[in-house]
Structures are given as C-alpha cells and as structure tokens.
Amino acid sequence: MQWLAYLVALMFVLLGAGCMVLVAIGLPGGWLLLALEACIEFFVDPLYLPDVSQPTFPPWTRFGIGSFVKPASTCSAPRIHPEAAI
Q1: 19 pLDDT above the threshold of 80
Q2: Which of 10-14, 29-33, 66-70, 73-77 has the highest mean pLDDT?
Q3: Which of these, 38, 32, 45, lies nearest to 59 by C-alpha position?
Q4: What is the CB neighbour count within 10 angstroms for residue 59?
Q5: Please, are residues 19 and 36 in contact by the beta-carbon 8 Å criterion?
Q6: pLDDT value, residue 2
Q7: Which residue, 33, 40, 42, 44, is CA-closest to 66?
Q8: Structural domain spans, the chain
Q9: 20 pLDDT exceeds 60?
C-alpha cells in the first residue's frame, strides 16, 4: 500500500498549489489548505495506514501553513473614498 501514500501526497501537493493560487487572488486558500491537511490526517490516513500513531503531517506543518493564514478581520477589501473616485 506504499503507492497509496504517494497518491495522497501527490493530491495534497496539487490541491495545495491550487490553494496558493486562491491566496494570490485574495480568497481563503490557506484555510482550505489547513482543512485539507486535517481531513487527510484524521479521515484518510486511518483507511490505509496500519499504525496511525505516527502522524502524516508533523505539527510544524500546521504551524507553517498557519503562519500564512490571515485572520478574517484583516482580509477586507481596500476602501475607496468617494472623492477619490471622481
């Protein structure tokens, strides 16, 4: 079942790249990447790993992804003053 681990890793990389594109255009791709990592860790890994005591993603992965995620309060669009639009 080693091939399944490589398949999961490949899907994470491809979907992670898509999430980074979402971040570049201003959508919450970082949050989606964290959710994807949690889904893999808690729902997918027990299906094919014989010993789930060792995590697929070490804790520093979550901290690394989380360092790029902004709080929702800082993600607002810039405001344009009505006088500047004229």
Answers
A1: yes
A2: 10-14
A3: 38
A4: 8
A5: yes
A6: 73
A7: 33
A8: 1-43+59-66
A9: yes
> Mean pLDDT across the stretch 49-74?
66
Name, in order, each residue with C-beta under 8 angstroms of 25's C-beta and a sequence gap of 6 or more.
none
The span from the CA of 72 to the CA of 30, in Å, is 11
- Give the H or E element holding residue 48: helix 45-48
Read off the amino acid at residue 75.
Answer: C
**Separation CA 39–CA 32 (nearest Å):** 10
Can you give the pTM of this predicted structure?
Answer: 0.62
3-state secondary structure (DSSP) of residue 72:
helix
Amino acid at site 81: H
Phi then psi for residue 24, to 5 deg, are -65, -30
Select from 61, 38, 41, 65 the least CA-distant residue to 53.
41
